[in-house]
Design goal:
- The protein has about 200 residues and is mainly α.
- It is built from eight helices and no strands.
- Helix 2 runs parallel beside helix 8, helix 3 packs antiparallel against helix 4 and helix 5 runs antiparallel to helix 6.
- The protein is globular.
- The termini are far apart.
Length: about 200
């Protein structure tokens, strides 16, 4: 379903302050992540707390536990970026080895199957496996981002493109815009990080 301008304007008028604040915090999070600045992870914490409310209201229940895990991953990412390098220095950007890629893909697929089964069995979600796949591979992407793996931006490009469609279907146009901008930042982040290697 392609939204009309009237439906977008109506949705934006009904958008809560929480959604606008989450939007700002999470855009700043990705912006600073592309610049490899550790403040990104603190902005992530703010946005994630607000995003729990947004997902609950949209009945995207698979996303709610993900936000809790993201909170922990944000703390992990902040620590890794600040002290994860040699002799507790800033962590440098690195490439993902083939063995690690295989392991991360297996984790993403198994996570999709397990969470998809739970969501299809215990919730009334219309797209449980689709939601489960974005959830599982978001965790993979977040871990890769926390470890400054260059290819995290490729994972985010794919995942955020899927999220853009999901939130557009839900009629959450501000969140749709957020994920569309994430897609753009994924490309920017990939090139910025590549130049620093």
């Amino acid at each position: 379903m392609i939204p009309t301008l009237d439906s977008i304007l109506q949705e934006l008028q009904q958008t809560s302050l929480i959604e606008y604040l989450a939007f700002i915090a999470l855009i700043l999070y990705v912006y600073y992540a592309t610049k490899q600045h550790a403040i990104a992870w603190l902005l992530s914490l703010v946005g994630l707390v607000l995003f729990v409310v947004i997902n609950y209201r949209a009945s995207l229940y698979g996303e709610i536990p993900l936000q809790g895990v993201y909170l922990l991953m944000s703390l992990y990412g902040w620590y890794q970026w600040r002290y994860g390098g040699k002799n507790q220095t800033n962590l440098p950007v690195s490439l993902t080895s083939l063995n690690l890629w295989v392991m991360l893909i297996i984790i993403g697929v198994l996570g999709t199957i397990l969470l998809g089964h739970v969501l299809s069995t215990y919730t009334a979600m219309a797209i449980p496996y689709w939601d489960a796949s974005t959830t599982a591979f978001s965790l993979v992407g977040t871990w890769m981002l926390a470890r400054k793996k260059l290819e995290n931006w490729v994972v985010w490009l794919i995942v955020d493109s899927a999220y853009t469609w999901i939130y557009l279907e839900k009629g959450l146009f501000l969140v749709t815009l957020l994920y569309f901008l994430y897609v753009v930042f994924s490309v920017v982040g990939l090139f910025r990080w590549y130049r620093t290697m």
